Amino acid sequence: MTAASRYTYLGPEGTFTEAALRTLPEAATRELVPMISVPAALDAVRSGEAAGALVPIENSVEGGVLATVDELASGQPLMIYREVLLPIAFALLVRPGTAIESIKTVTGHPVAQPQVRDWLKRFLPDAQWESAASNADGARLVQEGRYDAAFAGEFAAAIYGLEPLVTDIHDAHNATTRFVLVGRPARPAARTGADKTSVVLWLRADHPGALLDVLQEYAARGVNLTRIESRPTGKGIGQYCFSVDCEGHVSDRRVGEALMGLRRLCSDVRYLGSYPRADHVEPAVRSGTTDEDFLAAADWLTRCLDGRPDETGRTATDR
Ligand SMILES: O=C(O)C(=O)Cc1ccccc1
């Protein structure tokens, strides 16, 4: 297979990321290549060795997966084309024959730890936690004898010759992780009517109400946010950028106008793409913010300039 048909993912084999990737129909015709880290998976796309990469970006317990959020905000630009939601339940994987009383060390991806914290406190209060590069990597390290147990998907047990000692572990009910399929910049995914748009924003200068200014651009156009994260820019204490997801597609007028407002307001805006929502939820579009409303307003302005503002003030919603 060629680079054009290759997708990388946070590996090694047996991660939740791989399970999420395999839910995409196109994965069946791709060469799926596990990588050791999120930056490695994304760099393979940047260098042209792969056409896409699936990486975790957010979970319902702790919010953003910062390695991914930061990686998309820096370096050679990339874009998101798809998202995948996967309900997450962990299994405690051990070498065959291990008794729970003998477990002294446990491992897993750092994002897994807050999802099993209560369980650990209750059943393995004295076990020491060490982070692994991914949940499957933790399973691999247990196979090698480096740790006694790993939190991973139950499906990873067979791959690493382990057995699931306990299954269905999740502190929070309905714990879900969101993954994104990332590629090199090109035209955004087609609008479906149930889409999301992601950007990274750098403010011109820190000032009172800077975040309010950003929010205002969305709020004034009736655009709902689904995630907002402030991340240090690395340029000094107190210097932050914002990583923001909102409902809607860049081709929806209200979203396009909000992005133009942000472009005027901010020193830099990185457009990370518009893509179909995995849950297919369509936005509730507030009256006065439909495409027709924006077009009618632009039309009215043209008529004002032409000296014939005959339908002044009436929007498509009013008619
Ligand atoms: O994909 C994996 O297995 C990972 O290590 C990332 C992760 C961590 C926690 C929940 C879902 C995905």
Automatic annotation (TrEMBL):
Q: What is the lineage of its organism?
A: Bacteria, Bacillati, Actinomycetota, Actinomycetes, Kitasatosporales
Q: Name one Pfam family in it.
A: ACT
What pathway does the UniProt record associate with this protein?
Answer: Amino-acid biosynthesis; L-phenylalanine biosynthesis; phenylpyruvate from prephenate: step 1/1
For the keyword Lyase, the answer is yes
Q: Which UniProt keywords apply?
A: Amino-acid biosynthesis, Aromatic amino acid biosynthesis, Lyase, Phenylalanine biosynthesis
Q: Which GO terms describe its cellular component?
A: cytoplasm
Q: Which SUPFAM superfamilies match?
A: ACT-like, Periplasmic binding protein-like II
Where does the entry annotate site (Essential for prephenate dehydratase activity)? 177
In Swiss-Prot or TrEMBL terms, this protein is called Prephenate dehydratase
Domain (ACT) spans: 199-276
Q: Which InterPro entries match?
A: ACT-like_dom_sf, ACT_dom, Chor_mutase/pphenate_deHydtase, Preph_deHydtase, Preph_deHydtase_CS
Q: What is its EC number?
A: 4.2.1.51
Q: Where are the transmembrane segments?
A: none
Residue span(s) of domain Prephenate dehydratase? 6-184
Q: Please write the reaction equations for the catalytic activity of this protein.
A: prephenate + H(+) = 3-phenylpyruvate + CO2 + H2O
Give this protein's Gene Ontology molecular function annotations.
Answer: prephenate dehydratase activity
One annotated GO biological process: L-phenylalanine biosynthetic process
Gene (UniProt): pheA
